[in-house]
Amino acid sequence: MRTGLLRIIGAATLAYGAATAYRPDLLARPCGLVDPDGDVGPHTAAVLRPLAVRDAVSGLAMAVAPRGPALVTASAVRIASDVGDAVLFGTALPGRFRRAGAVVTALGWAALTTAALITPAGPGRRALRLAAGSVVPGAPGSVTECGSRGRSRARGT
Prior knowledge:
The protein is 67% helix and 0% strand. It is mostly helical.
């Protein structure tokens, strides 16, 4: 699981959801859900705001959930929401172009979240430095088991 990427996806979803809850036109305009003057009607705003709040809350959950089952669950809710959006908008929006755009966007986010969820975590920074040869355990100037630089406390020096 790529925890950092899941947190970034969560933060982005939180920001977009909060902005869209405040200004439903951010979602309504690209979806073609505006009147001929380009305004978002009150009924359209009333329907889009709960979707935006759902996104904000699920994004917040991804951003702050502890690593493990809670983060997996928050990510699964986000994926299910994106798939649901793809189905809903893919069948209900006016115009083939707008439907296709909404489906691609929603499934793209679902795929990114899924990839971050199922991809094994990479090696930690210390493991990368060890692999690169820049850290020799116990050597002066290297990071030791204690997390300090310099001589290893484990050797008593």
